[in-house]
Write a structure and sequence with these properties.
Elements (H helix, E strand, L loop, with lengths): L1 E5 L5 H13 L4 E4 L5 H10 L5 E2 L11 E5 L21 E6 L12 E4 L5 H12 L5 H15 L9 H12 L4 H8 L5 H13 L1 E5 L2 E9 L7 H12 L3 E9 L10 E9 L6 H5 L5 E2 L3 E7 L3 H15 L6 H4 L6 E2 L5 H11 L3 E5 L5 E6 H9 L24 H11 L3 E6 L2 E7 H12 L1 E3 L5 E3 L5 H7 L2 H16 L3 E5 L1 H8 L10 E7 L8 H13 L4 E5 L4 E5 L10 E6 L1 E4 L8 E4 L2 H6 L8 E4 L8 E3 L3 H7 L1 E2 L6 H4 L2 H13 L2 E2 L1 H12 L2 H7 L9 H12 L3 H11 L13 H17 L7 H11 L3 H10 L4 H20 L6 H8 L4 H9 L3 H12 L10 H6 L7 H14 L6 H13 L6
Parallel strand pairs: 1-2, 1-4, 2-3, 4-5, 5-6, 8-9, 13-14, 21-24, 29-30
Antiparallel strand pairs: 7-8, 9-10, 10-12, 11-12, 14-15, 16-17, 18-19, 20-21, 20-27, 22-23, 23-24, 25-26, 27-28
Helix pairs in contact: 1-3, 1-4, 3-4, 4-5, 4-6, 7-8, 12-13, 23-26, 23-27, 26-29, 28-29, 30-31, 31-33, 33-34
């Protein structure tokens, strides 16, 4: 006999999963080990005979061969059926469940426990794989299992797999009318009476902005359907969490509470809380946001009170206005004109501006909509004070997110100024709130498939993967920042690489970016520099470099025994504005949010907070984690590539290096920026565009020096991005062959990279452009002097070599011609010349240039030849004879000299 065991007080999920398994395991029977939910009981009253059910009392334990446990991992939820696990003939015990956090005391030989909304979903997937169909009743009860356990796909634990399973069950004939009837069976009179009592006696408290409700109800006997009552109660009261307790007594005992039965049902909508963890030590369990426990012989009031307090301890500190706000705030005076305000909005990309008086006190807010309206009516020169909103809602820096959200919804405002002591210190926008809510509700999976918050503590991971000295440096930096009232963040590539690395990998970080966010306490250029200077005092072996223009400082170690060649950039949080395309940005002090917003791609706009509170928190305002998981490069701003074409090269570099794809919309932005001709116009105007000169050179250096330069260069060509160098530059077959050929030659002829191979590759690209234009580009890129000389002389050398080399009949003539040119120039000429010329140059570089005559100057002196100009002539004659195969040994060389002397061509 093969049995499928449903836990006590069976719900639709356990019944639906059991029904599906009974179709997979032919001849198996379903056992209800206890009671059932009222709706399940009513369903079975009509459909019991259509399902493979057997009464527990009808089971002969001696005939049991295998057991399957559904939607449960604990023996005590199976009543007396748990004794069957110990039967000697039972060799196979399987568990199917979706409660990842549950501990198990069942001796299972097979388990399938996965993060889906309902256990029934797992069984549907197995039915689909086995190509087993269902009848309408079976499909209906299984669909009910998914609907009820996922709240019709609205509960947080719902997944796409649940939705697909439901769709398949609909195809199998699940009855929608029946599902609607039993999924929401209505409220019977006895529950309505308890609901009224519960609402009257409900205890409410607010903790960190969240409303926590609790209630203890007493009845004489057990009441079915209390989970439905708890769901209705939390909906009606709009609470964020509810602990619903119900007590009844089975009889009177001499000891207090001995016969009391206490059921506690928990519901939570607060991210970061876990009801399963709260109830599991007491023998209960469930999901993080929906769980229950049944207790006996306890003090109901004391137990509920203790659980409520322990639950409150779980509630995380919600983000406050200080965490969300942008600071410092872009402000204007009341007399600023509408036209001036519009220019400021355009420059900084804001949707509104705060208006302050001469004392910097907030007096109003003007939105883009207000400005557009004034411009529409022709009032461009009117002051903003005539159009600004004066009746303002403001918040404080410690106002929690739930309160901010409530104010925005209640008063329909999109911008809330943050005011302390009458001074405007920040602004929180509707976008800030929506982005934070999205981040809070987004989850990722751990190795076991469990859901965990996207924003989590990364400090343990950092500490475990970094060298102790580097971890201590970050700790010290955080402590020094915190002393000054600042936040310190690890940002950019280090965070990205941490999240991409395998859990066991060690991070060999040699380039670290830190950002100081001083908010209103020190929102100026000095914060990053001040912190770097202090760290230089603590670490005197480091060199300090300050770049005031960009509000950054750097600490550099060189071959240090502890830090290696570490480079740490420390910057003040800042925002930036590009005065014209491809310019260097103008920067101003700002907040960490705006600092991350100015960055290029979402995967580089991640930060880890190093200071308390909430140290180790991952800041991801723009979906960088999702793009890391999707393995795609996505730009933050539509005009990003027009403002800075080097970002095109960075996009390609990251995509190829990380094995990512460029997100389709981002690729469209790249192609639009190139096709717009903005870069061509800047070149024609001889405009000083750093992003097309020095910064572009740096990106070319990164790409052409890397191991992945070939696919990167091809991707640049496919995107048309080589036009950033010159409008006519195209990577055709000929040029592509030349650059690969030059790389092969360099690998053989310059294995130590003395010629800087990336530079020679770049020179091949530039040599494909008309000569004077190529030299002009090289000059703008600020290439080294020898590169400029090579490009200037390349055409001349080509003509000389291509003209004279075919006339050389002997190796000595080839050597005599080519030795006047440098190695790099000859390589460039070779890859641009015909096959015969290229073969001859290769023979010269690989063989003939290495040939030496059997005799040198010392030998000549020992033979009695007087030192002087004739030495060069003699040695040249010897080398030519050696190259042409006339001599090969010392004796042959000495005889060769005697012959020359006999012919009066030499004198002693």
């Amino acid at each position: 006999m093969d049995l499928i065991l449903c836990h006590q007080t069976a719900d639709f999920d356990v019944l639906g999963a059991a029904v599906g398994l009974s179709r997979l395991k032919i001849g198996s029977r379903i056992v209800l080990t206890g009671g059932a939910h009222p709706a399940v009981r009513d369903f079975l009253a009509l459909h019991r005979d259509e399902l493979s059910l057997i009464e527990m009392r009808s089971v002969n334990p001696k005939k049991i061969r295998s057991l399957v446990v559904v939607d449960n991992q604990q023996r005590d939820r199976l009543g007396k059926a748990a004794e069957w696990f110990d039967l000697p003939q039972v060799k196979a015990i399987a568990i199917y469940d979706h409660h990842l956090d549950s501990s198990s005391d069942i001796p299972a030989t097979q388990k399938q426990i996965e993060a889906v909304g309902a256990t029934t979903t797992l069984i549907v997937e197995r039915l689909q794989q086995a190509k087993v169909g269902l009848n309408p009743v079976e499909a209906t009860v299984m669909a009910l299992g998914i609907h009820v356990d996922t709240g019709s796909l609205t509960f947080p634990q719902s997944t796409a797999r649940d939705a697909r399973a439901l769709a398949w069950l609909m195809e199998q004939g699940a009855n929608v009318k029946t599902i609607a009837e039993y999924a929401d069976p209505g409220f019977p009179p006895y529950l309505q009476q308890l609901l009224t009592e519960a609402i009257e006696r409900l205890q409410m408290s607010v903790v960190r902005g969240y409303t926590i409700a609790s209630i203890l109800l007493t009845t004489e006997t057990f009441v079915p359907g209390l989970s439905n009552l708890a769901e209705r109660l939390i909906e009606l009261t709009e609470s964020d969490a509810l602990l619903f307790a119900h007590q009844y007594s089975k009889g009177r005992g001499e000891e207090p509470f001995k016969e009391i039965r206490l059921t506690i049902i928990g519901r939570s909508r607060i991210e970061g809380t876990n009801l399963h963890q709260l109830f599991e030590p007491l023998g209960g369990g469930g999901h993080a946001q929906a769980a229950s426990v049944i207790l006996r012989g306890v003090d109901p009031e004391a137990t509920l009170r203790e659980l409520v307090e322990r639950f409150k301890e779980q509630i995380p500190h919600p983000p406050t206005a200080r965490d969300l706000m942008s600071s410092p705030v872009r402000t204007i005076r009341p007399d600023t004109t509408i036209e001036q305000a519009q220019r400021i909005l355009f420059r900084y990309g804001h949707s509104g501006l705060s208006v302050v008086d001469e004392s910097d006190r907030l007096v109003g807010v003007i939105s883009r909509r207000d400005i557009d309206l004034a411009l529409h009516h022709g009032f461009s020169h009117a002051p903003v004070k005539g159009y600004m909103t004066r009746n303002l809602r403001t918040i404080k820096s410690d106002t929690p997110l739930p309160d901010i959200e409530s104010i925005m919804v209640t008063y329909d405002v999109g911008r809330l100024p943050v005011v302390e002591s009458g001074q405007l210190i920040g602004i929180v926008t509707r976008t800030d709130v929506l982005r934070q809510i999205h981040n809070d509700r987004t989850h990722k999976r751990d190795e076991q498939g469990k859901k965990e918050p996207l924003v989590s503590c990364l400090l343990p991971s950092l500490q475990n993967r970094l060298r102790p000295s580097l971890w201590q440096f970050l700790t010290t930096a955080a402590q020094e920042a915190q002393k000054r009232g600042w936040h310190l963040y690890l940002v950019g590539g280090a965070v990205r690489d941490l999240l991409l690395a395998e859990n066991h990998e060690s991070l060999l970080l040699q380039d670290i970016d830190l950002v100081v966010d001083g908010f209103h306490r020190s929102a100026d250029v000095g914060a990053g520099v001040e912190l770097a200077s202090r760290l230089r005092e603590i670490y005197p072996q480091a060199r300090l470099s300050v770049h005031g223009e960009f509000q950054t400082a750097a600490l550099l170690w060189h071959k240090d025994p502890e830090f290696g060649s570490l480079w740490v950039d420390i910057a003040t949080a800042r925002t930036e504005f590009y005065p014209y395309p491809a310019a260097n940005p103008e920067v101003e002090a700002s907040s960490i949010r705006q600092d991350l917003y100015r960055r290029d791609f979402t995967i580089n706009a991640l930060a880890v907070r190093l200071t308390s509170p909430r140290e180790g928190e991952l800041l991801d305002f723009f979906g960088g984690m999702l793009d890391l998981r999707s393995r795609q490069i996505r730009v933050l701003h539509a005009n990003s590539f027009i403002e800075d074409p080097t970002r095109i090269y960075r996009a390609v570099r990251f995509a190829v290096r990380l094995g990512f794809g460029i997100e389709p919309q981002t690729e469209e932005y790249i192609r639009y920026a190139i096709e717009s001709g903005v870069y061509d116009r800047l070149k024609l105007e001889n405009h000083p565009a750093p992003a097309l000169t020095t910064r572009l050179k740096a990106e070319l250096h990164y790409i052409l020096e890397a191991d992945y330069w070939k696919p990167a260069l091809q991707l640049l060509a496919d995107l048309g991005a080589l036009r950033c160098l010159h409008p006519t530059l195209v990577l055709d077959k000929k040029l592509w062959w030349q650059i690969r050929c030059v790389s092969r030659w360099l690998r053989w002829l310059d294995p130590e990279n003395l010629l800087h191979h990336w530079l020679i590759r770049l020179e091949v690209l530039l040599s494909a452009i008309e000569s004077s234009e190529g030299v002009k580009i090289a000059t703008n890129l600020q290439l080294p002097k020898d590169s400029l000389e090579r490009l200037e002389q390349l055409k001349t050398i080509e003509r000389e070599v291509n003209s004279a080399l075919p006339k050389c009949d002997r190796p000595s003539e080839v050597v005599n011609l080519l030795r006047q040119y440098k190695l790099a120039s000859l390589i460039l000429v070779a890859v641009r010349s015909s096959k015969n010329i290229r073969r001859t140059i290769w023979q010269y570089l690989a063989r003939w240039s290495q040939v030496r005559s059997p005799l040198d100057g010392k030998d000549l002196k020992a033979m009695g030849y007087k030192p002087g100009p004739q030495y060069r002539e003699i040695l040249d004659e010897l080398l030519a004879a050696t190259l042409d195969g006339k001599i090969g040994t010392r004796e042959e060389a000495e005889k060769f000299l005697q012959d020359l002397k006999a012919r009066n061509r030499l004198c002693c």
